[in-house]
Amino acid sequence: MVTGSVRAKAGRRGARRYLVDEWRDEAMPVNAYLVEYPGGFCLFDAGQTARAAAPGWFPSWQPFFRLSRFELEPEDEIAPQLRARGIDPKEVGLVVLSHLHTDHVGGLDAFRHAEVVVPRLEWERATGLRGRIRGYVPQRWPAGLEPRLVDFEGAVLGPFGSSHDIIGDGRLQLVPTPGHTPGHAALLVRDDVRSWLLVGDLAHTAAEVEQVAPQIAAWCRAEGV
Question: Which residue ranges form the domains of the chain, and what is each CATH number?
Answer without folding.
Answer: 2-223 (3.60.15.10)
